[in-house]
Amino acid sequence: MTKKHEHYLTEEQLEYFRGKLINWKAELIRESTEIRERLSDISVEADPIDAASNMANQALDLRTRDRMRKLIYKIDQAIERINDGTYGYCEETGEPIGIKRLEARPVTTLSIQAQERHEKKEREYKDEDVEY
Q1: Chain Cα centroid distance, residue 1
Q2: Is residue 111 classed as helix, strand or coil in its secondary structure?
Q3: Which of 73, 113, 72 is nearest to 90 (CA)?
Q4: Which band of pLDDT confidence, cut at 50, 70 and 90, is reported for residue 131?
Q5: Which residues of 74-101 are buried (b: 16+ CB within 10 A; e: fewer)?
């Protein structure tokens, strides 16, 4: 990091984000545990409509748990970045991401400009795959 970034995030701010990430992770683990317990209480319904509803709810729970698992991984990576001093810096440009963006999405690794470029490229590649 260059001299111009020396005072970007203070120790207090880093500890704030560490606490926010740790609390978020704990909440996700608690919710994931509740979902796992709900999934383990599967009952066979005699009524086909109830059975279909239960299957739909189970599928939603499984997708939710998978998203939680991925988010917990991102949280762990963000905590590692705090530990190694790279938290808050864009992985593409090395520039500060910005406190407001980190507050809104503490696991982000890209600045707004880099994220917009990334999304634009995704749209371009997606548009190339469309056949007319």
Answers
A1: 25
A2: coil
A3: 113
A4: low
A5: bbeebbebbeeeebbbbeeeebbbeeeb
Q: What is the pLDDT of residues 62-111, one digit of tens each?
A: 999 999 999 999 999 999 999 999 999 999 999 999 999 999 999 999 99
Q: Taking the model in full, what pTM does it have?
A: 0.79
**Domain boundary assignment for the chain:** 9-87, 90-132
Return the amino acid letter for 127.
D
Q: Examine the pLDDT at 132 and tell me if it is beyond 70.
A: no
Length of the chain: 132
Any bridge partners for residue 106, and if so which? Answer: none
CATH architecture of the region 9-87: Up-down Bundle (1.20)
Q: Which residues on adjacent β-strands are paired with residue 89?
A: 96
CA distance 68 to 32: 7
- CB-side neighbour CA atoms (13 Å) of 131: 0
pLDDT in tens, 33-44: 999 888 887 666
Read off the tokens for 46. 């005699």
**Token pair for residue 90?**
């864009």
